Amino acid sequence: MIKLIRIDHRLMHGQVVFAWTKSQGIERIIIIDNATAKDDFKKMSLKLSKPADVKLSLFSVDQAIERISKIKALKDNTMIIFSNVKETHDFVQAFGSVPEINYGGIQDRPGASRFSNAIFLTPDEVQWSKEMKDMGINLYMQQIPTAKRESLNAKI
């Protein structure tokens, strides 16, 4: 049961580990990130930083797409975390029906425009976001569960 899909360039950190897992009753975190899937040190670090009572899976986008039927069949309250808009877009296109995506943190880079304190999108990321919006997905910006939820759909 997917409770939350989040884009955050930091992947798993204090806000995810403490605020989001508690507020959503998360039992499993799936990180879908091509770079992390190839980096044994990063994978080990993430496994060490997860809450003891939460299961963690790490996949590349292609590995996750191969496992879509298993992901859809999960009974655990699940949070899926991506580090970037492109990989989120690619997975969601293959996955199908997703009601909403939380944009939690996307760092500032050259050519990116500011959409909130923590969300900076390049023109390509805006386009991929528009495509997800056109799929009927509610895109919203919210760093922590107690913060105000702000619509990204209205800004792109």
From TrEMBL:
Coiled coil: none annotated. It is an enzyme of class 2 (transferase). GO terms for cellular component: cytoplasm. Residues 1-156 form the PTS EIIB type-4 domain. SUPFAM superfamilies: PTS IIb component. Keywords: Cytoplasm, Kinase, Phosphotransferase system, Plasmid, Sugar transport, Transferase, Transport. PROSITE patterns: PTS_EIIB_TYPE_4. It is found in: Cytoplasm. GO terms for biological process: phosphoenolpyruvate-dependent sugar phosphotransferase system. GO terms for molecular function: kinase activity; protein-N(PI)-phosphohistidine-sugar phosphotransferase activity. Pfam families: PTSIIB_sorb. Its EC number is 2.7.1.191. This is Protein-N(Pi)-phosphohistidine--sugar phosphotransferase.
